[in-house]
Amino acid sequence: MKLGFFTACLPQLPLQQLAEWAAAHDFDALEIAAWPRSDSRQFEASHIDVASLTTREAEKIRADLDARRIHISSLAYYDNNLHPDLAVREQIHAHLRRCIDAAQMLGCGLVGTFIGRDPSLSVCDNLKLAETQLPPLVEYARIRDVRLMVENCPMLGWHPDGYPGNLGYSREFWEWMFRLGFYLNYDPSHLAWLAIDPVAAITSQPDRIAHVQAKDVEINQAARDEIGIFGRAINRTDPWDNGWYRYRVPGLGSIDWRRIIDTLYQVGFDGVVSVEHEDPVWAGTEHRLLDGLLIAHSTLRPLVRHLSDGTNMS
Q: Do residues 184 and 149 lie in contact, with contact meaning Cβ atoms separated by under 8 Å?
């Protein structure tokens, strides 16, 4: 198992600088953000320009990271693959295919995405839509020896009333999306606030967990007692904030990381545990963001062992 972090929290820093910092602070891997360089929406981190990446450039990136002993765990492009605007949906699919091509060139083998949702349709109709729209993307990845994986994030801000905007957020959807050929980028923080046991989720189908995102969650029980599990409805100024929980770096929320990591070892997971830093307390400046990553490291590194840690006592 390796310990890494998701580069999206530091969009202003170039990949080489992030890799140098990661190596200097005892991280093993980077989950690399690869949104379109021209994307002006919320998610604009782009540490590799997959639209223009050449084989030669990919080899240079690999060589630079290899020299620092930093592994590429995944390319990350989390967007709505069922976007209601057909033109936007095709742009998303086209960029996802570029990410898959780049992953093949880089030899990392994983690309992270979402199922998404058309909020104007029912859940059942969205499932039918996905069954026609998404298998060609899975097949495009498969023939390039790349696996597409879905993070189990509800993406509340994609729905006008703050309901789930990504149909892959709970175990109810996982068997369905696995049949379509997707794998799971397992994030326990979303399961915890949805009142789903994150440990039981690991053991349900461990062979489909391709990657782990390490994010914690802090629950404000008093606020939930007032507004309910669906969150603030009348005065919801931020579509992404339901008013009673917030994400934290590992160690500062309610997740039992000892049980999570131990269970991952028990089921044979040997991939990357990647810190996804969305903690508003440790944000605002580059220095605080990096400190947040170090807090996560201090929580997880004692649990996520280096492969070289074992000593031959014979």
A: yes
Amino acid identity for residue 263 in this structure = T
Burial 139-155 (b: 16+ CB within 10 A, else e): ebbeebebbbbbbbbbb
Instruction: Please give the single-letter amino acid code of residue 229.
Output: I
Give, in order, the Cα–Cα distances in Å from 207 to each of 42, 47, 162, 211, 243.
Answer: 32, 29, 31, 11, 35
The region, left, alpha or beta by phi > 0 then psi within -120 to 50, assigned to residue 237 is alpha
71-128 pLDDT, tens digit each? 999 999 999 999 999 999 999 999 999 999 999 999 999 999 999 999 999 999 999 9
For 115-142, write each residue's pLDDT tens digit.
999 999 999 999 999 999 999 999 999 9
Cβ burial 211-239 (10 Å sphere, 16+ → b, else e): bbbbbbbbeeeeebeebeeebbeeebeee
Contact 170, 176 (CB under 8 A): no
Pairing state between β 216-219 and 209-214 = unpaired
pTM of the model as a whole? 0.94
d(CA 179, CA 254): 32
pLDDT at 160: 85
As a whole number of angstroms, the distance between CA 205 and CA 185 comes to 12
Please choose, from the candidates 141, 152, 139, 133, the residue with its C-alpha nearest in 3D space to the C-alpha of residue 202: 152
List, in sequence order, every residue forming a beta bridge with 150; answer none if it has no partner.
113, 184
Give the separation between CA 252 and CA 250, rounded to whole angstroms. Answer: 6
Tokens representing residue 198 in the block? 């994150």
**CATH superfamily label, 2-307:** Divalent-metal-dependent TIM barrel enzymes (3.20.20.150)
